[in-house]
Known about the structure:
Blueprint: H1 11-22, E1 30-39, E2 44-54, E3 57-62, E4 74-77, E5 82-85, E6 87-92, H2 101-108, E7 113-118, H3 121-127, H4 129-139, E8 145-150, H5 170-176, E9 183-189, H6 192-196, H7 200-211, E10 215-218, H8 228-234, E11 237-240, H9 246-254, E12 258-262, H10 270-273, H11 275-278, E13 287-290, H12 296-301, H13 305-314, H14 319-325, H15 328-333, E14 351-355, E15 362-368, E16 371-375, E17 378-379, E18 416-425, E19 432-442, E20 445-447, E21 454-460, E22 469-475, E23 483-487, E24 496-500, H16 503-515, E25 519-524, E26 527-532, H17 544-560, H18 568-572, E27 583-586, E28 589-594, E29 597-601
Parallel strand pairs: 1-4, 1-5, 6-7, 7-8, 8-9, 9-10, 10-11, 11-12, 12-13, 18-22
Antiparallel strand pairs: 1-2, 2-3, 5-14, 14-15, 15-16, 16-17, 18-19, 19-20, 21-22, 21-24, 23-24, 23-25, 25-26, 27-28, 28-29
Amino acid sequence: MNTPSFERPLMADCVPDLVATARGDLPATLVIRGGTLVNVISGEILPGMSVAVQGSRIAYVGKDVSHTIGEHTRIIEAEGKYIAPGLLDGHCHIESTQMKVTEFARAVLPSGTTGGFFDPHEISNVLGLKGLRLMLDEARTTPMAAYMQVASCVPSTHPGLETTGAYIGPEEVAEALSWGPDMIGLGEVMNFPGVVYGDETMIGEIQATLRAGKVADGHFTWAADDWRLPAYAASGVTGDHECVTKEDVVERLRLGMYAKMRQGSAWHDVAETIKACTELGLDTRRMMLVTDDRSSESLLKEGHMDFVVRLAISQGVKPVTAFQMATINTAERFGVARDIGAVIPGNIADIILLDGRLADVRVGMTIAAGHIVAENGKMTAVWDSFTYPEEALNTVKLEANIQPKDMELSAPITEGTIGAKVIHVTENHVDTKEKHVNVTVEHGNVVVSTSGEICKIAVLERHKQTGNRAVALVGGIGFTGPAAIAMTVAHDSHNLLMIGNDDALMAEAGNRVIGMQGGVAVVTASGVTEFPLRIAGLMSTESFEVVAAQSAAVSEALQSAGCTLNNAFMTLSLLALVVIPELRLSDKGLVRISAEGIELVSLFDEMVENTPAAPAGN
Length: 618
């Protein structure tokens, strides 16, 4: 079967045919007739409008396009429907859906997402530029306008705090940005202390990006009124998704940055951040709606960017304004508004038709690069499959011989109680809290109860066979009986992460994940639930539907064990991310993130901390 080409040619190459179609000398390939246009440029809702498409691009927009219709022109009658630009996700990590790019496209195109700006720093931390190139090549086979960013933080801070499978610096950034116009910029610069205090690598990566004429995305988690935010902005970072309050949005906008308001599966920030629009009345042209990220379960049950736009509207945002935040604002932020983000002559024909009220964002048809790719919630387009090489499928460099004793947590006393730091999970938020509790010590090891509040958390390095292993304590998980979960999805270094209240079950879960060459395993007294993620230990080789079912099975197993956190798996996968406050665990040990910087700290209160704060990320 011949599959269509979803080519997105340069505007300059299309000018002769577009103009010929617009004046009626060359028949349009596709016409959408008689709908109500959502004009995100003017902010108007215009009835009785039609659109003529020539190949991949829009040739004409107006009340009457009859002069563009030929014998072979495909006509879509849009009376009673809204015509809107395809939705864009301004910050997303495809790997966090556990799907490869092809399946992600199949998941989001029916709900109206026709493009996005993707930061593949998950696979980059495992495979480096090879992993990034694989995802770029796969993305190019899909109908999506898939723009890739170069991972800025591999590792997220520096090798003294964590071990990754690769390294990316200024030279690698420059190389990747030369791969084509769909390499759009530098991914979120998470080592914000390094930027502020002049770390050579971080500054060099930003310089390489700016010299290539690209944009740099940010990740700043110090307070909105921190004096260092302007210093961060001075580096050339012009967009940031770490906004959790309306004040965060305000301060970024005032500095000329784009403020990204996110609604992921496990972190819900739109309701608060959107108040910068609904309560404070700030200009919305640099406000963007993003996901960062939505699980396969959420995509199946709720949708993607359509869900986020609906939510913004429900919070009091005018529908056309909400659409702007998910289309033209995003395209302008990345400098591609001449190609995507609006239904205007010359732009790529990424268009959605909406049924019912505009505020309902009910997508009935998706057109991508001039092709009808989805109707009534189902994909209609097909394209060739993409195969990952063996080196991307065998990335867990560990033997499946973890023993229960490897999960033991040695204390500086033999018997009694001792004060210890605990990583406390915050539901629906990316941050954790540092709590201090007294824990029981027996025979020199910390003891946790299978029915208690505290669990153990362990990270084993899985890339370079260093043998690094760290064990600490975590609260807020909710297990009510013996249970454990292990996963190689452990942002951002993606080492082997285990959480549980039973050493034997933790070891078994870890061994099962190693045996799968990556994935997730939940082990309880009632059984085992597995979710294989063979590609870099992050993504499944299976279809969207299978991934969603396996992800749901993990959620159900966790809930049955007492972990009722919303999107628990996604929340738990962040517990090794050493750039988000307040406490995390890496393969090097317990890490504190504060206004003073990022530092390794001791688990026990009585012990002297291991290293001084390292604000420069050195």
